[in-house]
Design a protein that fits this description.
Blueprint lengths: L6 E2 L2 E2 L3 H6 L6 H18 L6 H20 L7 H8 L8 H10 L4 E8 H10 L7 E6 L1 E3 L5 E4 L19 H5 L4 E6 L16 E8 L3 H11 L2 E4 L5 H21 L1
Parallel strand pairs: 3-4, 7-8, 8-9
Antiparallel strand pairs: 1-2, 5-6
Helix pairs in contact: 2-3, 4-6
Length: about 260
Amino acid sequence: MTLSRFAYNGKRCPSSHNILDNSRIISEECQKELKVLLHHYYPIEIDPNRTTREKIPHMVEWWTKAHNLLCQQKIQKFQIAQIVRESNAMLREGYKMFFNTLYHNNIPLFIFSAGIGDILEEIMRQMKVFHPNVHIVSNYMDFDENGFLQGFKGQLIHTYNKNSSVCENSSYFQQCQGKTNILLLGDSMGDLTMADGVPGVQNILKIGFLNDKVEERRERYVDSYDIVLEKDETLDVVNGLLQDILHQGDRMEMQGS
């Protein structure tokens, strides 16, 4: 949960999967089964003592089982907007400045998510920040001709395969051409590879949001990210950096003219 809030007033905020899993369109029995999966696999996902290679098969199992359960629920396409509207989904404080700054400065925003792309799009649409510069690589639902969920499109995206291997056929790399600097925002160790494979990159600034199990995970985050933000539910640091970078660019243009 990088652009989404992890918590608000001490209470966990829902991820895109949570929004669907806990909604009224999912049966009570299915919700119980999804919670069993969560309690089994989430500790594996964040276990600092396991390698990424060790975790990957478990993540594939988790996502596959969860998606199969969802496909049995006869979810209809039109219901997505309703459940997002009824949820407690929140983006981090300062999200409007973040999205609007990137849009008005013609900076592409790529969102790599192991969640559900349809729900992420709807959240941004309802919050009026789904601008044309936003490109999402995620798990998108596949609906049949009657509008019922029948599966998920393309390659499965989980916490630990967010890299070029899952977006070679998208416009991701085309839009990155000529971009030499990347501001990478993540909230897991798996997010560190999101810029791998982007051609011509010279500088990557990695900002990590450490939301949960702070004490036991701090060392690995500090070793891996350039900046680590602990339990920070805002985009203040990111927005501050963006403003400084853009103003520096303006000053350089003025000096050169």
